[in-house]
Design goal:
The complex is a heterodimer. By secondary structure, chain A is an alpha/beta fold. Chain A has twelve helices and 14 strands. Chain A is globular and about 60 Å long. Chain A starts with 6 loop residues before the first strand and ends in a 17-residue tail after the last helix. Chain B contains 14 helices and seven strands. In chain B, strand 6, helix 10 and strand 7 form a beta-alpha-beta unit. In chain B, helix 1 runs antiparallel to helix 12, helix 1 runs parallel beside helix 13 and helix 2 runs parallel beside helix 3. Classes of the chains: A alpha/beta, B alpha/beta. The complex binds thiamine diphosphate. Thiamine diphosphate sits at the interface of chains B and A. Chain B: This is Pyruvate dehydrogenase E1 component alpha subunit.
Chain lengths: ~350, ~375
């Protein structure tokens, strides 16, 4: 079925779950409040009514239990799609995720695979109180055995979730909360690119902005603003953090010669650091300036009235561009080791 | 350290078969005998006053969400007997470990209402000084505070302070692993902690039946060796009686105590929740007839301890509290963005100092932009 024009990301995710439940009896949806309530963000709205209590159901309130139960059910032949209600509330399940979900295939030398999707509404920008806004992608991306996916567009939300459910490996599916109500005219079902392929959301010649999930619209907005200052920015949407698309990123930076990595998470030891390092390793001779990261501060997520100071916005991206010195000869020698200049 | 009857038989850990109640739904004395002594009428009158003030506070906070003054508010309307009862059963030096729903308890503890609401207004994660009030920050991740309460109570026991801790926890959160670990630690270390489960029937949309197959949440103490009891949570007399006994048990070296209070959340989970999706009005209506404040009021009037004049004075006091709260919340909070870096570590790391400088220059640029119109 095709939702009407102006589909929200939440509706697209809902449609993906509905189509997956429809298409494969082994698919199950469970978690906290996903049943009659339809999830606190209504992503599972109507699924229990349509498919019954056996296919979409509420569990006791226990994240470790939910994920551990999913491990057992996946071993028993089902394909669980579970919901963690908010990013920080997945931490009780972290033991199950890191020790078991991520490692089962490896521990059993390929004999036991876990096709589980763990959906997590994540990141900030919606005025939520503490523990409702964490950017936790770094923990998952650092854990071998997990795929880490975060959609930025309505079509990708549908397509990536369908692919996640079909995937033979466990997928951490991070849903940017602030994009749940973003809209696009998309006819569903829609299929976009497969996992491991970044998308160029805006082609440009002067610098590449690498973004994912909640920061993609911010990067696009910054590109508009930067155009007024004479910058032609290329905006890349990773779509999947793991697997990582070195090819598209490298090709883009070799073309533009400059790179800014954008993320909401604290910058230190984060996904942005990994990307910057990879770009440096692969594009060193094409770079006209150091790779810069524009990230949230290295602080616990602030109270809602102050979150706008923490979240990287257009201005902070424009400031970074200043440091990339587009015009004239790049004077970046002072940044080289030893400071010989 | 098993508790024993005088004849040496171990005392059962089992709660009473039915929730303890002193009052009927209408507020007349319920048939006894009661296994716990009835609280002093002065204490009941104090509780009544705090409950009336608490409800007015709660209604005002709910109204403020409609004006956008609070990011979110989880109401405790209907749960006043538990929230006030818990605080009045403790001494001021005893510790409270609240969740996001315990605003009324914190106001009862004497924390200024505006400070209580900082978390939910969104200007600070914790608006009050925990050490000053002996109240931990309101906890949002479920059940995690129960383990803290066990640890603090054990610390107090080690110091020989005679202080106890009380942890609030919801029915839903009793499913979390931390709740079970807390009971076990508290029992093994004989920590003077009271776990107060406010069983308000729902965890957001999920009803109790989906949370547990146990006959009562109070039974969860048994396997850990924790004395447990269940009480009618809308009967303030019973709540005070049982919590009084639980606190005395913990304080006198008896170890932890679990109280399940059967109550009901009259409002949606928070102002953002749609309760019509998961429960029927008729059910809410049934609980309205067991309103904790109305029951206590009827009882106190029956005892001759509350007259029209005093009731009016208490209502006036509640109005005053609400007016002060409105004024406090309508004033914009003092926000200090640079404080974002102040309390990550005692001394900021060099990286944080750099980031602070960056934010500072951004703020200065903003100021400039305001002052110098272009
Ligand atoms: C670890 C964790 N998981 C999920 C949530 C999201 N959440 C907030 S309140 C709530 C329901 C809690 O119900 P209950 O424990 O019965 O307490 P009540 O809100 O009814 O007082 C849920 C699921 C959370 N805060 N923490």
């Amino acid at each position: 079925m095709t939702p009407p024009a102006g589909t929200t990301m939440a509706q697209a995710l809902n449609a993906a779950l509905r189509d997956a439940l429809d298409g494969d009896e082994r698919v199950l949806v469970f978690g906290e409040d996903v049943g009659p309530l339809g999830g606190v963000f209504r992503v599972t709205d109507g699924l229990t009514a349509k498919f019954g209590e056996d296919r979409c159901f509420d569990t006791p309130l226990a994240e470790s239990g939910i994920v551990g139960f999913a491990v057992g059910m996946a071993m028993g032949g089902f394909r669980p799609v579970v919901e963690m209600q908010f990013d920080a509330f997945a931490y009780p399940a972290f033991e199950q995720i890191a020790s078991h979900v991520a490692k089962m295939r490896n521990r059993t030398r390929g004999r036991v695979a876990l096709p589980i999707v763990i959906r997590i509404p994540y990141a900030g920008g919606i005025g939520g109180v503490e523990h409702h806004c964490d950017s936790s992608e770094g923990y998952y991306a650092h854990t071998p055995g997990l795929k880490v996916v975060t959609p930025a567009t309505v079509a990708d939300a549908y397509s990536l979730l369908r692919e996640a459910i079909d995937d033979p490996d466990p997928v951490i599916f991070l849903e940017p909360k602030k994009l749940y109500w973003s809209k696009a005219d998309v006819a569903l079902p829609a299929r976009t690119e497969p996992f491991g392929r970044a998308a160029i959301r805006r082609p440009g010649a002067d610098a590449t902005v690498v973004a994912y999930g909640p920061t993609v619209p911010v990067a696009l907005e910054a590109a508009e603003a930067a155009a007024d200052e004479g910058w032609d920015l290329e905006v890349l949407d990773l779509r999947t953090i793991v697997p990582f698309d070195d090819g598209t990123v490298v090709a883009s930076v070799r073309r533009t010669g400059r790179c800014v990595v954008l993320s909401e998470a604290a910058g230190f030891a984060g996904v942005g650091a990994e990307i910057a390092a990879r770009v440096q390793e692969r594009c060193f001779h094409s770079l006209l300036a150091p790779v810069l990261r524009v990230t949230g501060f290295d602080i616990p997520y602030p109270p809602p009235m102050l979150e706008h100071h923490h979240l990287p916005g257009v201005d902070r991206i424009l400031d970074a561009l200043d440091r990339l010195q587009r015009d004239d000869e790049p004077d970046t020698r002072h940044l080289l080791a030893g400071g010989a200049a | 350290m098993t508790e024993r009857h005088r004849d040496g038989r171990p005392r059962p850990l089992l709660p009473s078969e039915r929730p303890i109640r002193f009052l009927t739904d209408g507020g007349t004395p319920a048939r006894g005998p009661h296994p716990y002594p009835e609280p002093d009428p002065d204490l009941l009158l104090r509780a009544y006053r705090r409950m009336v003030v608490g409800r007015r506070f709660d209604a005002q906070a709910t109204a403020l969400t409609k004006q956008g003054r609070l990011a979110v508010y989880p109401s405790s309307r209907g749960q006043e007997a538990c929230q006030v009862g818990a605080v009045l059963a403790l001494d001021d030096g005893d510790w409270l470990f609240p969740t996001y729903r315990e605003s009324v308890a914190l106001v009862t503890r004497g924390i200024p209402p505006v400070e209580v609401l900082s978390l939910l207004r969104g200007d600070a994660h914790c608006g009050y000084d925990p050490h000053r009030h002996h109240v931990a920050p309101q906890c949002t991740p479920l059940a995690t505070q129960t383990v803290h309460a066990a640890g603090l109570a054990y610390a107090e026991r080690r110091k020989g302070s005679g202080r106890v801790a009380l942890a609030f926890v919801g029915d839903g959160a009793t499913s979390e692993g931390d709740f079970h670990e807390a009971l076990n630690f508290a029992a093994v270390f004989h920590a003077p902690v009271v776990f107060l489960v406010q069983n308000n029937r729902y965890a957001i949309s999920v009803p109790l039946e989906r949370q547990t197959a146990a006959p009562a949440l109070a039974y969860k103490g048994i396997g850990y060796g924790v004395r447990s009891e269940q009480v009618d949570g809308n009967d303030a007399v019973a709540v005070l009686a049982v919590l009084g006994a639980a606190v005395a048990h913990a304080r006198s070296g008896g170890g932890p105590f679990l109280v399940e209070a059967h109550t009901y959340r009259m409002e949606p989970h928070t102002n953002a929740d749609d309760a019509t999706r998961y429960r029927a009005d008729a059910e809410t209506e049934r609980w309205r007839r067991r309103d904790p404040i109305a029951r206590l009021e009827a009882y106190l009037r029956g005892l001759g301890r509350l007259g029209d004049e005093e009731a009016a004075a208490i209502a006036a006091e509640a109005e005053e509290v609400a007016a002060r709260l409105r004024a406090g919340m309508n004033a914009d909070p003092d926000l200090a963005p640079l404080d974002l870096f102040a309390h990550v570590y005692r001394e900021p790391t060099p990286q944080l100092a750099e980031q602070r400088a960056l934010l500072r220059s951004e703020l200065q640029a903003e100021l400039h932009a305001e002052e110098v119109p272009v």
